[in-house]
Structures are given as structure tokens and as C-alpha cells.
Amino acid sequence: MKKSVVTLSMLAIVAIMFSSCGKQCYCTRYEDGKKIATYTDKDVVYFESSVCENNSVSSFQGESIVTEDKEVSIEIKCK
């Protein structure tokens, strides 16, 4: 009985630690619908996923980072 109580309490502590830890925000750049790059700021962690998702940018026209002097549709999605 005592072992099971200790085991359950340890599992509860581990679960709380994992759920309260901050997560990194991964942002993916798309050009004309194709995934080009994924990046993150390793120094910053987010505790609310909505804050990370607010870094997303809806589709706009801009210069490609792959092909020089080419205008493409750019979208950035963060999660």
C-alpha cells in the first residue's frame, strides 16, 4: 500500500512538472504554399500557446529567400 501511494505521488509530481513547463514556439515559413524553413527562438519559452500563435503572419506578397528577385506569396505559421 505504501509503495503504491509513493508511486502515485511521484507520477503526479512528474505530470505537474511536464504540464507547467514552457514550450518553444516553432514558426514555419511557406512560399507559394511550399514549406521553406522552420525556426525557433531557443531563449524564449511560452506558457500560453495563443501567444506563440499570435506570431503567425497571414499570406502576403514578398521576395523569395530561395530564388533571388522573385516575388512569391509568403505565409508564416507558428505553433
Cα-atom radius of gyration:
20 Å
**Contiguous runs where pLDDT drops below 50 for at least 5 residues:** none
The count of helical stretches stands at 2
Q: Which word captures the global form?
A: rod-shaped
SSE topology string: HEEHEE
Q: Could you please describe the fold and organization of this structure?
A:
The protein is α+β, with helices and mostly antiparallel strands. Helix content is 30%, strand content 35%. The protein has helices at residues 2-20, 49-53; strands spanning 26-31, 34-40, 57-63, 71-78. It has a 4-stranded antiparallel β-sheet with strand order 2-1-4-3, with no helix packed on it. A hairpin with a 2-residue loop joins strand 1 (26-31) and strand 2 (34-40). The longest helix is centred in the first third of the chain and has 19 residues, at 2-20. The termini are far apart.
Short précis:
This protein has helices at 2-20, 49-53; strands spanning 26-31, 34-40, 57-63, 71-78. It is 30% helix and 35% strand.
Give short descriptive properties of this protein:
79 residues, 4 strands, 2 helices, rod-shaped, alpha+beta, single chain, four-stranded antiparallel beta sheet
Task: Chart the SSEs and their pairings.
Elements (H helix, E strand, L loop, with lengths): L1 H19 L5 E6 L2 E7 L8 H5 L3 E7 L7 E8 L1
Antiparallel strand pairs: 1-2, 1-4, 3-4
